[in-house]
């Protein structure tokens, strides 16, 4: 007699995780879907809550998302049993999405908008005006239209009727703004699509400073002013990064070779003393150098004056300011190169030096024919990473010179010692840049592509791709 297996008795889903790179990608995809569904549920629930309770706190979306995640994780584990072995990746994916993916997405998005302190998507308190509400709570009458001749100009309407635009309403205390959709406008009267909230005693109104997509306008503005900002700043950024790496590497290499000599007495004391500039926080060190380089009262110029040398404007002249940056960065960076050299030297077999000594090689010949060639492999990634770091070394520029001194013919946000990153910072956050976040985002994208191109050239020149193929 033939027995047919019941569908209910079919083999259970495999609990063993898939193997290889495909299995990893599949697990990451399942976790991303789980997180995406949880965020979607949290967003929908928080939106529904906000419609019922307008005073609900914004962080409810996080509470709802976490709750949805706690419910969906065991459900997903029943549907895909092997995914429980990959749940340890979930925190990493969440932090990666929150602190890397989301900022990148927002930066790219803002680069194609006019988002700034003026166009911020917030109520414009500077042009607030007195307002009254009709008995049916549908018509708002404005006392005046500040900085505009018509109500359409005042509200910056997309259409002549202002239909679909937003009017901001305030009570007497102006504590909580209430957004109301506009149905139409006439004279200084604004008709709303729905009655104003019952508990709101309208006393003032204002417009919404919204931002919108402007296409490639930010990039056209950057390249239109390239001779006053982009090209000189980019050139100095490359010179600064390259010079810093070369100077620090040479200084660190010389000191590392000298201090690795086992016959040198007190070498551990020298190592400790030379390591101190790296151990002291850069914020403190740079402020110390600002005082030392003071043109009138700094100890550097005081010492030069004793030697009969005229005071040097270390931080007041464009050329000397750049030299000052390189000197201070040498002070901050050579201990790292020195430590890296000492560590790399410890991997070289001492028998090579003994054999070279037996063959009559001098100390200099041993360095040039044994030490330097064997250090090349260790130093290549260090030099490349050092170049990439200094290409975006905002700290030394901001703390020492703040991008100055000013230079004629340059943009206010891109002065003589500004690098690309400080230029973007000044555009986004300094008053001289007007807090133009969209333009700063476009600068950030340009920095990304320039850094990527330079990194590819460096990797190609260093033979990194050939090593990877092996």
UniProtKB/TrEMBL annotation:
This is Maltose/maltodextrin transport system permease protein. PROSITE patterns: ABC_TM1. GO terms for biological process: maltodextrin transmembrane transport. Keywords: Cell membrane, Membrane, Sugar transport, Transmembrane, Transmembrane helix, Transport. It is found in: Cell membrane. The keyword Membrane applies. The chain crosses the membrane at residues 21-44, 56-75, 87-112, 233-260, 272-293, 382-400, 437-457. Belongs to the binding-protein-dependent transport system permease family. MalFG subfamily. Pfam families: BPD_transp_1 (PF00528). Residues 234-458 form the ABC transmembrane type-1 domain. GO terms for cellular component: maltose transport complex. The keyword Nucleus does not apply. It is a multi-pass membrane protein. Gene3D superfamilies: MetI-like (1.10.3720.10). GO terms for molecular function: ABC-type maltose transporter activity. Part of the ABC transporter complex MalEFGK involved in maltose/maltodextrin import. Probably responsible for the translocation of the substrate across the membrane. Its main location: membrane.
